[in-house]
Amino acid sequence: xxxAAGALALPAGAEVIVPAITDMGSLTGVLYQGxxxxxxxxxxxxxxxxxxxxxxxxxxxxxxxxxxxxxGLAADLEGLLTVAHDAGVPLIEDCAQxxxxxxxxxxxxxxTDIAAFSLNHFKHIECGSGGMVMTDDDRLRYxxxxxxxxxxxxxxxxxxxxxxxxxxxxxxxxxxVALAQFEKADAIAVRRSALGTRLDAILAGCPGVFTQPVPxxxxxxxxxxxxxxxxxxxxxxADDFSRALAAEGVPNxxxxxxxxxxxxxxxxxxxxxxFPAPSILSSPAAYTAPxxxxxxxxxxxxxxx
Length: 305
Known about the structure:
Elements: H1 2-7, E1 15-19, H2 28-32, E2 36-40, H3 51-56, E3 62-68, H4 77-87, E4 91-94, E5 102-103, E6 106-107, E7 114-118, E8 131-134, H5 138-147, H6 172-203, E9 209-211, E10 227-229, H7 231-234, H8 238-247, H9 267-270, H10 278-281
């Protein structure tokens, strides 16, 4: 996601409209580029960003919109593309959880100028960690190649960085593992989609349980199987329900994505602590002391770290 934001060359201080429920990984690149996240509501049934809410949050500083295909279910790309077109801004697809997901018969990640995929250790396919950026725009591909590699112009043989860029190069071993994973990616997505669809049918009409609706002609690749509960009708809390499922041998977690709160209520936004300062690090109430700070000091035996 950081590479995608960097390749778009969005001006520092500009705003990016993002969903209020997502993983923090969707937003770190936005913050590192000096961009301002503006949180839009999600649709209550899909948990994907709501195009109507996005439209209400457009402003003179809006530079991009971020669509996250939550849990393997495609966001309303038709609605979001209409809003982005009307505003004259790019739409970025976050496909980290959406390998093999389709929107109206077409793969997600192919609807916009640039998209990002995750390859970390618990996605549909993986190579240990890292990810992938996809674009059909050669200009963005070239910018992305600079941004992931310290702004070294490898294609021209020039080392003279003209903008600040991180070092996100993959190792050759990771690349080989990722390429091998691609051969089975679609089979994995088809299988997960079939199992999720079967479970949808089993739970259909179950009092107090609401599954994610899948648009006609679309494919949910079910990175996660998400559902909502009518807690008043069930007469329990989400944690009670989670423990009951676990007792039946069903691995699960309540409030898995957000930890029970929308992203904008994370301390990093509420307390505006994007970059650690001594006052933050010394306050246990504001910051969890890093494990490394408790490690015993060791005498150096030479070599490099």
